[in-house]
Each structure stands twice: as C-alpha cells, then as structure tokens.
Amino acid sequence: MPPKIPWSLLRMTFFTKKDCGLCSTASLNAASWKLAATGNKAQFKTVDIFEPGNEKWHDAYVFDVPVLHLESEQDPSKILKLMHRFTPEEIGAKALELGFGEPPPK
C-alpha cells in the first residue's frame, strides 16, 4: 500500500452564507471530522459567498451551499466536492480518494 499523504497537506474549503441552516449542520460535520480523523491537522478555511471579493464563489454556489472542497497541496488541480447535506463518513471517503487516511479494515 502506498504511504498516505500527511494530513497537514489536506485543504478543506467550506463555502457558506449567513442564516443557512444546512450550512450549520455541514460545518459541524466538517469540523468534527477534521478533529477526529486528522487530529485537527488539516487546513480549514471558511468562505462566505456573499462577502466582497467572493463573487466567483457566489456565482458558482449561490443555490448550492453548503459546499466543501477537499484537495491536496500535492495536487491542487484535483478538487473533490461535497454539496448540501454530507456526513463525516462521506468527507472521509473523499479524503481517502485523494490519498489521505487508511481504508477501513475488511
């Protein structure tokens, strides 16, 4: 099995907006997964799509927040996305797809 990528190279970008109930739940799921799975080592950034300077993200996600991007610093061209409702398990599966973590034992 190839060595796993260090958690510190995992970038998580959470796209949100004010007064979004789904966003609150998704944010909690992302934060709890980051703490439990990575020991809080993954990078985490929150982007409010309505803040000035975030027009690109507003145009892309105005009807889709919450959105979570996961990417590796080693290959920033590959971004995996989760949208709307997502669980910590789904976040872990996407991280595994990028080469982070270990597959569950069989």
TrEMBL record:
- Keyword Cell membrane in the entry? The reply is no
At the top level, the lineage of the source is Eukaryota
Which key words are in the record? Answer: Electron transport, Transport
Keyword Amino-acid biosynthesis (UniProt): no
Q: Which family does it belong to?
A: Belongs to the glutaredoxin family.
UniProt protein name: Glutaredoxin-like protein
Query: What organism, scientifically named, is this protein from?
Result: Orbilia javanica
